Prior knowledge:
Elements: H1 3-28, H2 39-43, H3 49-62, E1 71-72, E2 81-82, H4 90-103, H5 110-130, H6 136-147, H7 150-156, H8 166-181, H9 187-199, H10 203-222, H11 226-245, H12 304-316, H13 321-327, H14 329-343, E3 346-349, E4 352-356, H15 361-367, H16 378-392, H17 398-429, H18 441-444, E5 450-455, H19 461-470, E6 474-475, H20 485-500, E7 508-512, H21 515-522, E8 529-535, E9 542-548, E10 559-561, E11 578-579, E12 582-583, E13 589-593, H22 596-602, E14 607-610, E15 613-621, E16 627-632, E17 646-647
Amino acid sequence: MPKTKMDRRVLLFLLGAALGAAAFLLVYGISPLDIRNDAFCRGGFLEKDIQQHYAGWLFYRQSALPFPLCITPAINAPQGVSVAYTDSIPLVAAVCRPLAEFLGGTFQYFGWFTLLCFVLQGGFGALLCGLFASSAVSAALGSLLFVASPILYERALRHTSLGAQWLLLAALYLYFSCRRRGRYVSKGLFFLNILAVGIHPYFVPMTYAITLALLLKYAVSARRWRGPVLYLAGDLACTGGLAAALGFFYGTATSGGQALYGYFSMNLNALWNPAGVNGTVYSRFLPAQNQVNGNYDAFAYLGLGVLIALPVVLFLGRRRIFAHLRRHWALGAVCAILTAFAVSHVVTANGATLFTLPLPGQWIQVFSIFRSGGRMFWPVYDLMVLAAFAGLGRLPKPLLWTGLLVSVQLLDISPGLWQRHQDFRAASQAEAFPSALQSDFWQAAARYSHLESVQGLQDDALHLALYAADHGMTTNDPFAARYDAAALESNRQAVLQELAEGTLRQDTLYLFEEEGAFLQAVEAVCAQAWCGRVSSADGDSVWYVIAPGLQGEEFDGLCTVYDEDYPLRLADYTDALWNRGVLDSTKQTVCFADSPFARRKLEGAAYLCADGQAYAITQVDDSDPGWLMVTLEIEDATVLWDRELTTK
Length: 648
């Protein structure tokens, strides 16, 4: 390549990178660049997911160095899991671990990773725009459209690894560069596809889609298939090799939440809906639109500048549109597929589900590997922004039109960027999501080496994970995106059987989500442990615990010890007939989870009491296995919900 072209590329990249770095500093400041400052990782911002990412890193850092890399047996114990599934940016975690061990103390890499993402977003944005602009100034201005991309801020401030939007810009830049030279062999794309799996697997189908478009166009045009097929096979093999090395295929991690493909689909209003999470609106002029289900995860607001420019560009270039489509038919085809996958079979518009196309269950299971399917639209989104820039660049005085486009765009989205700056600043100064682990019980519980979630998903699970990591504990709590649900349930049943036999592991703290399950398990072991209820100060979070070796200890008022004075509570049961443990039809019948404790309390009792009031018991029915249904002389038993109840 001629030296002048190389110099221009370097200049463009540096200009864009500088703009990206400036944008990062304006939004984040310098505090996240201090590797010993993990306040923003612990407090969370916008969502608590950063706590998951950071906890995964802490567990991995404390584990013996394994192969595959990134495996920690301390999560999802005893099976273990790769921190790729805690979105801890596995490749970066593996690279940073030796440095963290050498330096010692607190070490977080999320701030520097995010800065790098902003720098590369600007750099590759400028290079991409440079392919369609005659001047470096115009290309640098165009890079601002990508540096200020609402998707970048919405993702980087929620899921750090998904802030690597530059991967898509780099893939598009390499695609167009190769197309202009009539080549399909791109070392850059080959490497980029491998790198993507080390950052976040959701980028893999997107970068490969762009690669496939390049290979397919060349193969059809040149009628040469062998080279492109070998290239693709080699790339896939290397990508799979890195995934295996980072532990993606370790164990049998297959499950991860109840939502399936279609729930996190892209709403048909996504391009002009500026509504981000936590009430942030990314537009000064356009109102937030309604959404349903998980549409929020498919956020794709284009910005008013691009929304105005695109129709103008399409109208002025209407005679050349079909020529462009013929030239890039393969890219258009993969974009159509990505868009269809993003919209999914559950088609939504504003606050309504228009229709749901029937799909075979096996297809849904396969598609649910990427269940947040709305994200697959991101390459199409970037192409739309590029089209707006490139189209205006063909007009007379392109610099003027580009400057106008960027000005309108920045003016429109500035409230959202300012709000994200405020959100991060608040999270850096105080805990955005204060921990519910406020009782002095948790100080005493630091003695255990394993935290066993015997049943259910624990309240404040991510702070609980950080607590376990800080105290060198292992945990079976599957707070990862993927885990083996069957193995977890089998292990839990084994633990429940041990408890039923009166066997306690002295190094283990047992936690229950539901009181009914706790009361079933506690009877056989209560003499060997402190057993009871621990809550947060506001009462929103509750744990039912069995703490071996702490029997006889006294804790603060957030703890209620399990003994004969332990209160009854209505079961948290709701269906078409019951509302939080109260039968709707009469409002006089309440239910309790069946347990030896509840039976003792109700046996021979004449009254159920709460807040100084006594309600006569007219019937106790145990015909429904697992439940005790009690009918009272009361007008409306819903007053008993969430009350501590006694009998007499």
